[in-house]
Amino acid sequence: MATSVRARPDGSPPPSAPPSSPGPRGRRAAPAGLRGALYRWDVTAAPYLFVTPFFLTFAAFGLFPLVYTGWLSLNRVELGGGARWKGLENYTDLATSEFFWNALLNTFTIGVISTVPQLLMALGLAHLLHYKLRGRGFFRVAVLAPYATSIAAATLVFAQLFNTDYGLINTFLDVLGIGPVDWEASRWPAQIAISTIVVWRWTGYNALIYLAAMQAVPRDLYEAAALDGASRWRQFLSVTIPSIRPTVLFTIVVSTIGATQLFGEPMLYGGSVGVSGGSGNQFQTLSLLMYEKGWVTGALGQASALAWVMLLLLLIVGGGQALASRHHRKKLGG
Questions:
Q1: Neighbouring residues of 136: CB distance < 8 A, sequence distance ≥ 6
Q2: Longest distance between any two alpha carbons in the chain, whole Å
Q3: Which of 24, 177, 231, 273 has its CA 20 to 30 A from that of 148?
Q4: Is 172:283 a contact under the CB 8 Å cutoff?
């Protein structure tokens, strides 16, 4: 039965019908005309417009230098001169260069004697800071202070400590009846001194990373281990270490990458012969060799080839970490 619409008592027309409800699921239909075209463009193109600055920055400062360095590595390029095609000759020259193998060995040894003590000490510090102790907040800030110190300042201080003639380290060794050690001209003492700088700067940083991972471990695991009679040391080995294993793998990879790119500490420690890694190249790393090839001798092609070799080494390290993480996940899933 149809209903009639009555007029108001004052004779004014009845109220108009309410606006149509939105479409399905609350969506409004796109307006027509130019306004509709702008609406559709905003919905489809605006997200790409927002991420465009990142891709432009990455292309300008990441992708282009990488590709251009790869092209330089296949050419003979002198500083300030033109390029002449050489193919893989720069890479074969590296394979037969004693300086390259010396720098590779130095990078490996310095990386080992700096990374292993650094991560072990960081684990111990994080374990101590994980438990309640007085001044815990102060100690958490204090362990991060070396990381905030500049490389130049830290290296210059340690260079004075390890000075052969008047350094504090040799003074203590003399008190113990040990003769003075040449901490710069000798191979192993020089590498130990440089590794000490790296350990001092990065131990606290890694300790805070481990501490954050330890705080995410459920307390129920520690309580269950304590009920079973496990000591704090046993809890650390059987509960803490397995629980933070992914974090440990992450710090190993990051520390290895940092050791591969080690540049500032050995260069400043060596002083006037820092670029060559000492008078006998006893602590020259891959980064120092690349800098020497590119900006001292002017062989940009060889320096670019060395940069790509370093990239390959880092990719191998990253791939090893990915395989280890996958194996760990499969083991937990099994």
A1: 129
A2: 117
A3: 273
A4: no
DSSP E strand boundaries for the chain: 75-77, 83-85
Query: Using one digit for the tens of pLDDT, what is the confidence trace for 164-213?
Result: 888 999 999 988 888 889 999 899 999 999 999 999 999 999 999 999 99
What Cα–Cα distance (Å) separates residue 325 from each residue in 193, 237, 252? 33, 19, 12
Query: CA 43, CA 35: separation in Å to the nearest integer?
Result: 12
Q: Phi first, then psi: what are they for 207, rounded to 5°? A: -60, -40
Distance from C-alpha of 331 to C-alpha of 78, rounded to nearest angstrom: 52
Place of tokens 């191998």: 316
Side chain identity at residue 206, one-letter code: N
- Supply the pLDDT for residue 196: 96
Give every CB contact of residue 107 below 8 A, 6+ residues apart in sequence.
Answer: 259, 260, 262, 285, 286
Q: Which residues are 299's β-sheet partners?
A: 78
How many alpha carbons fall within 13 Å on the CB side of residue 205? 15
Please say whether the beta carbons of 256 and 310 come within 8 A.
Answer: no
Report the predicted TM-score, pTM, of the whole model to 2 decimal places. 0.81
Q: C-alpha distances in angstroms, 322 versus 15, 35, 123, 315, 327?
A: 69, 50, 22, 10, 9
